[in-house]
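Archive transcription. Copying these from loose printouts into the bound notebook so they stop getting lost. Printout 1 of 2:
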Amino acid sequence: VSTPIGNLGDLTQRAEEILASATLIACEDTRVTGKLLRNRNIKSRMIAYHDHSLPSVRRDLIECIKDGETVALVSDAGTPLISDPGYKLVAEALKAGLYVTSAPGPASPLAALVLSGLPCDRFLFLGYLPTKEKARRATIAEFVTLRATLVFLESPRRLGASLSTMLDVLGERTIAVARELTKLHEEVTRGSLSELAAK
């Protein structure tokens, strides 16, 4: 179930109905999801589920579904599995022959792409870049010849270094940097890679 990436008004009616009727909500952080549920007066039970959860937690969730219960999977913000936990749970549920569906909604990579002013007809979402310079450079180099808009996630403290590496590897091009999407201080800065790397 996709959850808002900032603006709580972006929770869809279907998502709200699923969360309200779920036997159990598997969430990245119960404190974060708890705020959303309280905002919508949803009383469903929550359990922490993230990439560091023990395999036994995943097995327990699978057993709940086998027993006829509805388990809703959410991340802290946006669409689960899109640079967020959930892949292992979904893969295991499908392997067990269980019904899995998606309640689509907000996803920061798509929101940024739409606001970027860059071509959206062909794009590749690459998630977070490696933190080490050598690995980051190698990852970016894989896509030098690709004719598509590249979408990355990056932390504010590593943004300058990542943009500098992109400039070295990809060369000059027009880019956009988006932050605080859907929130009060939403900002999209557009310009050349060299000027935004310097900024």
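Printout 2 of 2:
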Amino acid sequence: MSAPATTDLVVQRPEGLYCPPGDFYIDPWRPVPRAVITHAHSDHARYGNGHYLAAAPAEGVLRTRLGEIDLQTLPYGERVQHHGVTVSLHPAGHVLGSAQVRLEHGGQVWVASGDYKVVADATCAPFEPVRCDVFITESTFGLPIYRWCPDEEIFADINAWWARNATHGRASVLTCYSFGKAQRVLSGVDPSIGPIIVHGAVAPLNEAYRAAGVSLPDTRMVTEVKDKADLRRCLVVCPPSAAASPWMRRFGDAQTAFASGWMQVRGNRRRGGYDRGFVLSDHADWPGLMGAIEATGAQRVIVTHGSVPVMVRHLRERGLRAEAFDTEYGEDAVEADLQAGQEPPA
């Protein structure tokens, strides 16, 4: 890859994506003095930075995951200046507090998307297209095969699966990522079917969501359940690693499922050993990615983590100036492992 022009507002460095005129990083993967954070997933928000700037709705989840940090928050759309760079944060629709980072300097506007999805849900502010000259986009599901069904259909399937299992006296164990996906699942299921039990990795993040004003149904820890009949008709929301741990034994002959965009690919459910797979993603699908890029009006697009070569080639065929940044952001499978077994200290 050729060296970036000196006028570029974001370049690659070993520590992460760097804004030279502003002297700060966006989602750095090594400790730096100043970091702008798009969202609180552990591959984008890491411990050890000197100062953090994030969207105001992200404060609770960031502090839940990273503990005591020097955190400055900014309401969506409000602008601040740092070394002459105007910075504002705009909803990314990914998880609670997720943001796109808009940078303006020297007559240029750049937007770094972080992770995003374009379909609205009840747990976070909906994606907001931001006009720019250069758009840095993720590509986690950047292949044409990825096309999501409406949430109503997915949650109807989840509720029917849970109700059927409850009728047969079996717990329904739905595995998903502790932060973001778990809360989206909880917001969409029908709590009248039975009790809802959450894993210890999910519970503190639920509280952060509730504190931010997100409505979630009542949930319990398994230690709070005294009636064994409840364990045979409950919905259990837990990270993937819990499904293969001794923690699962208390639910007996349970049915297991995984909620993820990766379930779109035939064979992933079988390899994971799940009884069911529900295609539910907090990332944009292929039409969502293409629509989001078009809505920015950007003529230059920089693609990060995911199906990078396919996206770059396709965007070039559409007449855009497309290239790639090499990053250390993880894909969903990596995020699942991190959240399941390596939650940062509260």
